[in-house]
Amino acid sequence: MKLIGERIYIRILTPADVSDAYVSWLNDDEITQFLELRWRAHTFDDVKKFVALMNESAQDHLFGIFLRENGRHIGNIKIGDINNMHRFGDVGLLIGDKKMWGKGYGAEAIKLATDYGFRELGLNSLKAGMYEGNTGSYKAFIKAGYKDAGRYRKHRFCNGRYVDELLVEKSRDDAVNE
């Protein structure tokens, strides 16, 4: 299954998609500065195991983000921690290829994944949180139609200090009214 956008497509990531470039993203301090995975080193085998676990999980859907023009893997987007009773999930985004930052690929991937979450998974709402200072991620979610939902004050430790976690959300009703 491929979800095709204007310049990218997303599809479920498989262990065969794990590459040296992908693993290098996860070990790059600049790329991971706002991600919880930054607290440890990642190996090729660890990443393959993680992707395999995501494929087996009923509560997580890990997609790779690929350029339509050449199929190059530039990042990942995940709908995770799905709560089937209340019909919501969390969205997480990683644009690992720094040359692709600031080009709108994140917002396009968020739109594709959000549509999948509402149409295919039957979710009622999706939410995301990001560190204050992660301007790129925040702008991508807002561009994709997410709304501010608040913040957790001094909730995350980043670069030697505590920063707020910004919260955004989008409901099925928001998507219908766009």
Describe this structure in words.
It is built from six helices and eight strands. The chain is an alpha+beta fold and about 180 residues long. The chain has a single domain (about 1-175), classed as 3-Layer(aba) Sandwich (Aminopeptidase), CATH 3.40.630. It is globular and about 40 Å long.
SSE diagram, text form:
Layout: E1 2-4, E2 8-12, H1 20-26, H2 29-32, H3 44-56, E3 61-67, E4 73-83, E5 88-95, H4 105-119, E6 125-131, H5 135-143, E7 147-158, E8 161-171, H6 172-176
Overview features:
single chain; 178 residues; alpha+beta; Aminopeptidase; 8-stranded mixed beta sheet; 6 helices; 8 strands
What's this entry about, in short?
The chain has 178 residues and is an alpha+beta fold. It has 6 helices and 8 strands; from the N terminus they run ββαααβββαβαββα. Helix 4 packs across helix 5 (135-143).
